[in-house]
Amino acid sequence: MLQVTNIEKSFAASHGNVTALHDISFTIDSGQFVSIVGKSGSGKSTLLSLLGALDTPTSGSIVVDDVDIAKLSADQQTTYRAEKIGFVFQHYNLIPNLSALENVMLALEYGGMPGRERLERAVELLHEVGLESEEQLRRPARLSGGQQQRVAIARALANRPSLILADEPTGNLDSETGKTIFDLLHKLSRDEHTTIVVVTHDLSIAGKTDRTFTLKDGTLATLKR
Ligand SMILES: Nc1ncnc2c1ncn2[C@@H]1O[C@H](COP(=O)(O)OP(=O)(O)OP(=O)(O)O)[C@@H](O)[C@H]1O
Ligand SMILES: [Mg+2]
């Protein structure tokens, strides 16, 4: 489903280039649940943004369902993201002047769902991540960090993406709520065959995924099956 071959990613910085990823290669099958672990600055978010076509590699290829997403035009990347990807950002990226409910409904609108069905689906998704009805009407600034994180997760699931990319989706959650979210993702991979890649610092979560990738200074250190 997803084949990464020899990717490198460098950023221009004031003191020269910073290479965030060095010669990374791996394959992920459809429906696999993969975790990425590694120290701060090891390249986890960079790798996730390349898989989600939010950025392009400096070299190498990323083939998703027979298409090399590294070679897509900006418009094609947008279409790829809309049709295939559910992205949970490390800093949520919710729209501040929309309520939790409206944030999820907007994603559904982009996904082409008719207006009448959006409200019902958004309410259902937010209940699934444990947000109560009253909380669903609040703007992000009036929600706790963990509640915002769960809105971001509901938004990522909204259009039933075939690939979910989540950057520390349980980083701000207590262990019980984190387990609920993990179970939800696990259920999607098992029942809907959704491919899931999560960045996590929580080794108890990483230990329960199908595979764990460890990044060390931009290099894939170990590849556990
Ligand atoms: N846009 C950018 N411009 C320059 N350097 C960048 C850019 N984005 C990331 N980097 C650098 O690339 C390296 C990897 O960053 P990345 O954000 O992928 O780390 P991370 O593993 O997600 O860390 P954390 O656990 O702190 O979120 C770091 O050295 C970072 O400073
Ligand atoms: Mg990061």
Summarize the structure.
The protein is built from eight helices and ten strands. The chain is of the alpha/beta class and 225 residues long.
Helix content: 25-40%
Mean pLDDT: 94
CATH topology: Rossmann fold
Indicate the structural class: alpha/beta
Question: How many β strands by DSSP?
Answer: 10
Please identify which CATH superfamily we are dealing with.
P-loop containing nucleotide triphosphate hydrolases
Q: How far from one another are the termini?
A: 16 Å
Low-pLDDT residue intervals, each spanning 5 or more residues: none
CA-atom Rg in angstroms: 17 Å
Bound molecules: adenosine-5'-triphosphate, magnesium ion
Shape: globular
The biggest sheet, with number of strands, parallel, antiparallel or mixed sense and barrel status, is: 6 strands, mixed
The sequence of SSEs as H and E is EEEHEEHEHHHHEHEHEE
| Count of the domains | 1
CATH architecture: 3-Layer(aba) Sandwich
| Percentage of β-strand residues | 25-35%
Strand order of the largest sheet: 6-7-8-3-9-10
- The tally of helices reads 8
Jot down its keywords.
single chain, alpha/beta, 10 strands, binds adenosine-5'-triphosphate, four-stranded antiparallel β-sheet, 225 residues, Rossmann fold, binds magnesium ion, 36% helix
Characterise this structure:
There is one protein chain. The chain has 8 helices and 10 strands. By secondary structure, it is of the alpha/beta class. The protein is globular and about 50 Å long. The mean pLDDT is 94. It binds adenosine-5'-triphosphate and magnesium ion (MG). Magnesium ion binds next to helix 1.
